[in-house]
Amino acid sequence: MGHAPEPSRPWWQRGVVYQVYPRSFQDADGDGVGDLRGIVRRLDHLAWLGVDAIWLSPIFPSPMRDFGYDVIDATGVDPLFGDLNDFDALVAEAHRRDLRLVLDVVPNHTSDEHPWFVRSRSSRDDPKRDWYIWRDAKPDGSPPTNWRGVDALDTPGSVWRFDARSGQFYLASFSAFQPDLNWANPAVRAAMNDVLRFWLDRGVDGFRLDMADFLGKDPHFRDEPPETAAADDYLAATRFQLYAPVTRAHLAEMGRTVHAHPDTVLIGEVLYQLSPDQLAAYYRGAHPAAGETADGSDAGSADGSNAGSAGASAPGEELPSEELAFEASQGEGLDMPFHFGLMFVPMRAGPLRARIDAYEAALGDRWPNYDLANHDMPRLSRHGEAARLAVMLLLTLRGTPFLYYGDEIGMANVDVPPERQLDPFIIYLTGTTRDGVRTPMQWRSGPNAGFSDAEPWLPVAPDAHEVNVETQRSDPRSMLSLHRRLLELRRTRPSLHAGGYEPLDGTPEGVFAYRREHDGDAALVVLNFTDAEREVTLPRPKRWRFGLSTLLDDAARPRDGALTLRPHEGAVLLGEGADAGER
Ligand code: GLC
Fold it and tell me: What confidence category does residue 307 fall into, taking pLDDT thresholds of 50, 70 and 90?
């Protein structure tokens, strides 16, 4: 039976977002690197697949030392990818197919080759000096604070980089070539909000903010306390360095800019270590819960409202200016802080349920989101036999799912030989560079998998002759078919795109099941993470009929109120007719 999608929810809650890594999707101009015209060529694939929005990793002019996350002009297009006309064409062509476009913007830092930083570095007196964060050494000559860089990406060390010419340190949370902007400077805030307006005026539907939780720094540049400074836990060691109360005010300002345009979304990348409660506090309109301060003390500021679970302030601490007060946020901010929790739990019933339950409980009626892979993390295929279960989980949970290009065909985490590696950072989960999750999209068998006529910038995976879109489109049991069927089911069933989440108790060991209901429509998702057959008693009084199996046959039909699943099989059951909606 057909149900029309619910018109009342914003598109980004109904929809599924697909991340395109522009360098690797499709090369149209024959230089071995993907580009905007290439993406336009492949939009029909995305429309056919059934996703709703594209998130584009950075396309701005860049020296590409961090492959675009080191920007030198945030309102331009790197010639590698095309120009602004190509961009306008992409927006128009995407919208023509009902696909939204979300741009990746990097607010926390720029490239050290950005004209702003070149000037900032040129002299202590340059008007741009204060656009970045410059400080003197401590009296003993050591860096200005004991703050440390992101250990997942770089060699752990100080965030402060010494500039011999001016005799001061500048702050760079990531690499030395990515200096942090000084968000305490109103001119910087105005410039970055103008960047958002520039792209909004060109028709984009929203943004993914890179490292959104890094924007606010402790206004007093206090050292992290010695007892936490050396902690293994990066979050515990960065309470002043990542100063949440101030960050939230900056995000609120950007929220106002973005939401002034209708139907837009503001998504923020935040550290994967954030707890569900800390994630909840980053939502638009969320007031950080009392007693959730990082140090457990009463961290309220003068107005008592801007203490944050992801930051701390000393008792009696006041924010630097009224502009930055949390009160000023007026319910503005991120629509969704990214949730990476499922990337770090084993693909097993118990740990998954525990994490999802905790996240759901912390969020309440805020809108969740899930992400199993991206350009910084291993691909979905790392889950082996559980990969299909992972996809069913991702596409049937309450909340917006994010898909990563190529995962829909099960692309491998490619072993890129050392002489072809380009990425300066490693994925600490695997100890490999991120190159292996950024290899060219595999469109068909044949030269360069249909990605480019030239030698691609990264090698094509060795299995591309088998694992590709063309082959899998004609195979009704392929990973691609599974994605398409799940996306279709999610789109057409209100329970799956709008329903609540209700885990089922008493399932057999190794089985995770949850029920979703909305407006008289019901779905039951049952996932067997074991390598044995499992029989599950179905909840009454509803009658359940077969919807979809991860194995894409219909053997998993409920019989006599029970469902038998094969090893590593998952199924979606649909609530039958009149009973649907009853509990
Ligand atoms: C984010 C990006 C990552 C980049 C880093 C520094 O984590 O996802 O690719 O290297 O920010 O900009």
Answer: very low
